[in-house]
Input
Amino acid sequence: MYHEENLGKGEALKTGFRYIAQHYGDAHYVVTADSDGQHAAEDVYRIAQEAKRRPNDLLLGVRDFSAGDIPPKSLFGNRMTSFIFALLYGKKLSDTQTGLRAFGTGLLSFMLDVHGKRFEYELQMLISCIQSGIAIHTVPIQVIYENGNAGTHFKAIQDSARVMGVLFSNFFRFISSSVASSVVDLGIAWFLIDSLRPMMGDQHYLRILLATVIARVISIVVNYVLNRHFVFRKEDSRGSLWRYLTLCGLIIILSSTGVYLFHTLFQVDEKAAKFFCDALLFLLSFQLQRRWVFAARRKQL
Output
């Protein structure tokens, strides 16, 4: 089975998955392994046996990169990707680029829906599993690189760019959502400050307060909807609105307290303290929304 032209590793895997789904309806699990000699037969067998015990999970054959004889490019790429992956998705995986994987056939349709055509597909698979509540387990395997990994088809610039794009996709969407909500907040506040002037006359503070509150309520709703459906993509997220509102209140308290403490204890300018505190709280908000507000429940198969 082959493609007439190179469509990428992701498409190659999906073609195999479709063939299994169509012709092997009685199969119980699927194992994928690279064709460049990196995976020993005994490791393939071990991960297959583990898949029998965990048919609803994704199994990864992970290499120990603390061992010697690792090509520097592969070592750096794996360590950097693993660090960023743990930071953004809360799952520590020592080998995010392993091609030795296994899962039950009940996950075939899910794997076919994962986006990606080339090397970035395998990373997107990990992200999609985390977002959907599918458990990921690791199985230690041997480290094998034949001829310094000369047989790889990985293109350093193009494929690395695709992998980094997938890795940061959620965070970039979170930034976009925050910017859009800020624009809505500012635009509505400006509009209301002017529009309420004829009705409220000299009540300047009340007019500004009313405009600010209305704008903030609308921008909070916009941000919640964008984060739920565009950033974290949780159509079924019971109780997420109340968790989101609780988080908003917590962020306000932490921001105010942080600015006050930096200013009074360390004589930091209030505006600079506000920028620093809110930058840190932005990262905290991303993690809490991913892990708590829009946390994935385990996928039912």
